[in-house]
Amino acid sequence: MEAVSASVRSLLARVGEQDRRLDDLSDGPFGSDDAFGAFGRPLGGPSPEPRPILELAGPERDDELDALSDWVDDFLLPTYGAEVTTAAPWCPRWQEHDDVVAWLHALWLAYQQHSAPDAGPSGMLIWHRDFLTHTMAAIRAPGGPLSACTTTPDRPAHRLLPHPGTSVRSDRPDAG
Questions:
Q1: How would you class 108 by CB atoms within 10 Å of its CB: exposed for 0-12, middle for 13-18, buried for 19 or more?
Q2: Cα–chain-centroid distance for residue 141?
Q3: What are the pLDDT digits (tens) for 6-62?
Q4: Whose CB has fewer CB within 10 Å in the chain, the N or C terminal residue?
């Protein structure tokens, strides 16, 4: 009976540790000891709550876009960029595509969260599986947001695809 009690205590301790890690991860992607100073995040001190980049304006958005661009240019593209083709387009002016900026910013925030030491040993696998693959497939799809841009460096072309426009609203008949 003592062996069963010891096993239960051990299991409860491990569950408690997992709960603590989940709580830490839910606090946000920016830890005070993160390694992202090179990508525009301050080291030490209180960390800002992340906000979607499209909600930012002025210098705050410019600073965030600069830091995101550093991460994309220095890490993401050299590591995961793959060759540019019509099946996987890329635009060197991606910062002008608001939808691509939003996707990449969300990917960057997820990267910061899942590469932090408290993300645990599976943090980066989760980032690859749940964030990287889906994001890159969406923005580099043949019919995706970069599809109207060049795939040949010798013939640069950049075109923002028009959005669908505003919705047509019809009056709903009265129910009574």
A1: buried
A2: 17
A3: 766 775 667 666 666 666 655 544 444 444 444 444 444 445 678 889 899 999 999
A4: C
Provide the domain count of the chain.
1
Distance CA 89, CA 142 (A): 7
Dihedral sign (CA 27, 28, 29, 31): negative
In the 3-class helix/strand/coil scheme, how is the chain assigned residue by residue?
CHHHHHHHHHHHHHHHHHHHHHHHHHCCCCCCCCCCHHHCCCCCCCCCCCCCHHHCCHHHHHHHHHHHHHHHHHHHHHHHCCCCCCCCCCCCCHHHCHHHHHHHHHHHHHHHHHHCHHHCCCHHHHHHHHHHHHHHHHHCCCCCCCCCCCCCCCCCCCCCCCCCCCCCCCCCCCCC
What is the value of pTM for the model shown?
0.65
Main-chain phi, psi angles of 8, to 5 degrees: -65, -45
Q: Which of 93, 108, 92, 94 is nearest to 29 (CA)?
A: 108
Is residue 125 a part of any domain in this protein?
yes
160 part of a folded domain? no
